[in-house]
Every structure is written in structure tokens, then in C-alpha cells.
Design goal:
Elements (H helix, E strand, L loop, with lengths): L1 H35 L2 H11 L4 H24 L7 H39 L2 H7 L4 H39 L4 H11 L2 H27 L5 H30 L1
Helix pairs in contact: 1-6, 2-6, 3-4, 3-6, 4-6, 4-7, 4-8, 4-9, 6-8, 8-9
């Protein structure tokens, strides 16, 4: 009975947390239209979340593409289809690896930065001071950062996929000896608009989920140094789990 009671309490607590984050998302969406008019704040957050993450995104995309080139060549060689390496690499990167790995890297770099920044503002009573001055911190602090992450995520996923394709071409053509013409021509013939749109939809949804989790954890962080640290940790863990869960659901939906 004790085990069932603890299981029930855990389920209720999860549902309460889900309801709280859905309500928080509703408040963010309510303030989104007026926030879009403040281009300077959004551009600044796009720079903080996107431009400062370019190095890790590009390096990771390059090495993931190179590994995909090696593994793909080894697998396709068994069937005498080495020339299809470009198609396999492009589809794998655009539909799965690009959005998913980018979301995980985004959560680890930009998501933790967002959560820590907002959590520190909570710990130093900056958000409370804004509320005392009748200034809504969600509208002026949280929403621009949320929109910056949402806008940044698809762009980073596209860059990751492009660099990954170059990495696969570098290994497959330059090292493993695949014909360059076959690599690019089969890739253009095998990748259609549906594959590209699936990757775009996934990256947009992952961007909303990861950005929402980051700003939510930061906004409701316990106003202590330990509380901010826990908020950043929960941001990474929750974002990773939610990203993989949503990836399964979206993949099943597209199939």
C-alpha cells in the first residue's frame, strides 16, 4: 500500500507540475505579440542563445557527420551501395540527428545559461523589485529570452545538418573514395521536401520545449545559490528527456 501511495503521489505531483508549466506557457504566449515589437531585445537574446553556441554546434556537427560517413560507408559497402552515402547521411542528419543533437547541445549550453540568468535575478530579488514597481518580469525578462531560444533552435539545427553533410562528404569522398558526383546527385535525388520539413518541424518544437523548460526552471528557482544550481541541472535533464520523448512521438506521427 505504501508503494501505491507513493506512486500515486508521484503521479499527482507530475500532473500538477505539467499544469503549472502549461499555464506558464499560456502567459508567455499572451505576451508574445507585444514582445515581437521589441526587436532589440529579441536580437540580443538570439545572439546570446545562437551566436554564442555556434562553435559547439559546428564542431559537433562536423564530427557527427564524419562518424556518420565512416559508419554509413561501412554499412553500405556490404550491399555494394557506397554511392548512396550522401542520401543516407543527409536523411539521417536532417530528420533525426540534426534536430535531436542540436536540442541536447542547446539545452546544455544556452538552456542552462537562460535558467541560471533568470534564477540569479530571482535570487538577487531583481524580479521581486520589478513586481513591486508594477513591471511584469515575465513580459520584460522571460518572454524575450523564450522567443530568442525558439528562433535560434531551427537555425542552429540547419547549420548542424549542413556542417554534418560536409563532414560526411569529407570522409566519404576524400578518404573512403566515394565518387563525388554520385554522392551529391543521389543526395539531391533521394532527399525530398518531406524529409526537410520533418526536420524543421522537429527543431521548432524542440526549440519551444527546451526554451520553455529553461525559463520556467529559472523563473521558479529557489532564491539561493543551491536553488539556482538545481534549476540548471533540472533544465538539462528535463530538456533531454522531453526532447527524446517528443522525437519518438513526432517520428511516429510523420510515419
Amino acid at each position: 500500500m505504501k508503494l501505491l501511495s507513493e506512486l500515486w503521489d508521484s503521479i499527482v505531483e507530475s500532473l500538477v507540475g505539467l499544469g503549472a508549466i502549461v499555464r506558464f506557457l499560456g502567459r508567455l504566449l499572451y505576451y508574445t505579440p507585444p514582445a515581437l515589437l521589441r526587436f532589440d531585445l529579441i536580437i540580443k537574446q538570439v545572439y546570446n542563445s545562437g551566436a554564442l553556441s555556434l562553435v559547439i554546434i559546428m564542431l559537433s556537427g562536423l564530427f557527427v557527420g564524419m562518424v556518420l560517413g565512416l559508419q554509413g560507408f561501412q554499412l553500405l559497402e556490404r550491399f555494394g551501395s557506397e554511392s548512396a552515402l550522401g542520401t543516407a547521411a543527409a536523411i539521417g542528419l536532417m530528420k533525426e540527428l540534426g534536430p535531436v543533437v542540436t536540442a541536447l547541445l542547446f539545452a546544455g549550453r544556452a538552456g542552462t545559461a537562460l535558467a541560471a540568468e533568470i534564477g540569479l535575478m530571482r535570487a538577487t530579488d531583481q524580479l521581486s523589485a520589478m513586481e513591486m514597481m508594477a513591471v511584469d518580469p515575465i513580459r520584460h525578462v522571460v518572454v524575450p529570452r523564450f522567443l530568442g531560444g525558439v528562433i535560434t533552435m531551427p537555425l542552429l539545427a540547419a547549420i548542424f545538418s549542413l556542417i554534418g553533410i560536409y563532414g560526411a562528404q569529407l570522409v566519404g569522398v576524400q578518404i573512403m573514395g566515394v565518387d563525388a558526383g554520385s554522392f551529391w546527385s543521389q543526395m539531391r535525388a533521394g532527399v525530398d521536401l518531406r524529409d526537410v520539413s520533418e526536420g524543421i518541424v522537429k527543431s521548432c518544437i524542440f526549440g519551444v520545449a527546451c526554451s520553455l523548460i529553461a525559463v520556467y526552471e529559472g523563473y521558479y528557482a529557489i532564491p539561493t545559490a543551491e536553488g539556482v544550481g538545481r534549476a540548471t541541472t533540472r533544465t538539462v535533464v528535463t530538456s533531454a528527456v522531453v526532447t527524446l520523448f517528443l522525437d519518438y512521438l513526432l517520428t511516429a506521427m510523420f510515419l
